[in-house]
What does this fold into?
Amino acid sequence: MFINRVRELAFLERRYAADQAELIVLYGRRRVGKTELLRRFCEGKRHFFYVADLGTENSTLAELVRRYGELFHNDPESTHFATWDQVFKALARQAGEARLIVVLDEFTYLLQTSPTLPSILQRLWDETLQHTHLMLILSGSYVGIMEREVLAYQAPLYGRRTAQWRLQPLSFADARLFLPGYSLQDQVRAYAVLGGVPAYLRQFADRRPLLDNIEGDILSQGAFLYDEPRFLLQMELREPRVYFAILEAIATGRVRQDEISQAVGVKGASLGYYLNTLRDLGLLERAVPVTDADPAHSRQGRYQLLDPFFRFWFRFVYRERVHLERGDTATVRQIVSEQLDALAGLAFEEICRSRVWELAAAGRIPFRPQRVGMWWDAQAQVDVAALDEEYILLGECRWRSRPIGPDVLAELKRKAARVSGTRHQVLALFSRAGFTEPLQAEAASQGVLLCGLDDVLSKEAT
It folds into this structure.
């Protein structure tokens, strides 16, 4: 199943249509859908697609030559290729008169197989490749390696790439399409568990109850998702033990730097290094109140896991591994069952914050936000906050099974009174179960925006 990626495909099509050689770097975490995206893009176009694997330089080069011979069987010289130079110069000849896409997928494996390959490509690009109709795409899963060995200033290919794109997980609006048989509420719960990584979403079957999927496809030893975060982190990081401890601490509610330090026993600059590495990998973010004028130096920073599946895994799989390694999935399933709606509430808040951009684009709020996030001080927290120079939107989210009433609006007003500044305030309420009639009447008279579950989760902001 291939869903969305409209912007990414449009980006690739624009580069394909450009009247110049292209060297494009596409990267992103494992399982996020890079290969599927590139295969979809290559459909109907003249292309050479190579997916690398671990092996020796000789075996990798031999496989590349074999694939070349299959595609360009009319090239009599292909049986004599013995170097990277010969292969890429042959591809340059094939791209001499007409556009040719060359995809080197899992490029990080090629880097491990042949560390000198970036330097070889640099020389060939300068001498030959840039003067052809070649569209060379280097795609890699290990974010740290790609940024260090391909994109960084000191990397041989720096200055040669013509474009780059870091592929992100799908938004909720697209992720839910993998599970159309679930109710809207269970789609939110599933997103709270799996996030927006297509390979993870494919593991669940919407004909089965959600908890059955969780127990069978995540909590059971041997399941595809049982050890997935462990594998990913061990590939990316040199000291996974410390990173695991940090991620577990954050997943279980210790979000301030001093709390994390106390939990893992790492302090000062050393802890900052670990946290920054996780941020660079896209697994972690440091959030500050949306009104903070200097986020980088704010003392109110909180760390939170960006990926819902990592949040779930560290909270229920890594933390409860003693039970799971004994095969006691029933105990952990019960723990998950008791806490799943709390986890879904966090996901619902994130979905609502993303929805603010669409509400603004549709004219549902009177300004275009410059920032969207949360607001808090020592005594209060607002789930959704967005602002520009003149306005600030403040909103509360409620993942409750009953409609919310005027008491929630009154609570929001009390919190809003604590937000300093001269911006005009716009109030909003987001609810899983809708709103009572008294609240609807009060909101209508005071211009408070109400968004029920159908409205929050609809694909289009109408």
